[in-house]
């Protein structure tokens, strides 16, 4: 099998700030790449030799300017993107939850890639166009990122 046909590992960060935005997560709209026009969580590719926590921390900082140190694996999706969705691509996405203590430094660090970050109620995601892995997580009736 060609290396290009192997699945990629994506990390999606479910950033929550329960004391300020109850039942909400941080999202932005994808402006480029596959899934353009869909809302996404902060995240990206797991790099060689990197732990899941390290990747989540790095991607959160690179994309939102937020610093968090504690992450928990809470969900996994397996997505095969169709040609219409920018594929063919295959991703296993690990959803890592973190609790934000202060969002005063929140900033869109990659404005060419995504819109400004907004806090949105988890249940309101059902009414938005979502990036496919996030859509799968929202559609999973057995998953609620606020169940602890």
Automatic annotation (TrEMBL):
Residues 4-144 form the Nudix hydrolase domain. This is Nudix hydrolase domain-containing protein. Gene3D superfamilies: Nucleoside Triphosphate Pyrophosphohydrolase. GO terms for cellular component: cytosol. InterPro entries: Nudix_hydrolase (IPR020476), NUDIX_hydrolase-like_dom_sf (IPR015797), NUDIX_hydrolase_CS (IPR020084), NUDIX_hydrolase_dom (IPR000086). The keyword Ligase does not apply. Keywords: Hydrolase. Belongs to the Nudix hydrolase family. CDD domains: NUDIX_MTH2_Nudt15 (cd04678).
């Amino acid at each position: 099998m060609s290396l290009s046909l192997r699945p990629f590992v994506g990390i999606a960060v479910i950033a929550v700030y329960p004391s300020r935005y109850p039942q909400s997560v941080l999202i932005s709209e994808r402006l480029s790449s596959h899934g353009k026009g869909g809302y996404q969580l902060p995240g990206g590719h797991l790099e060689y030799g990197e732990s899941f926590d390290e990747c989540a921390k790095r991607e959160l900082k690179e994309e939102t300017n937020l610093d968090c140190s504690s992450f928990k694996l809470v969900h996994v999706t397996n997505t095969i993107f169709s040609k219409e969705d920018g594929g063919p691509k295959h991703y296993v996405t690990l959803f890592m939850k973190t609790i934000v203590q202060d969002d005063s430094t929140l900033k869109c660090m990659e404005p060419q890639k995504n819109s400004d970050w907004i806090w949105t109620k988890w249940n309101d995601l059902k009414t938005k166009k979502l990036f496919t892995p996030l859509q799968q997580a929202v559609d999973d009736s057995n998953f609620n990122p606020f169940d602890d």
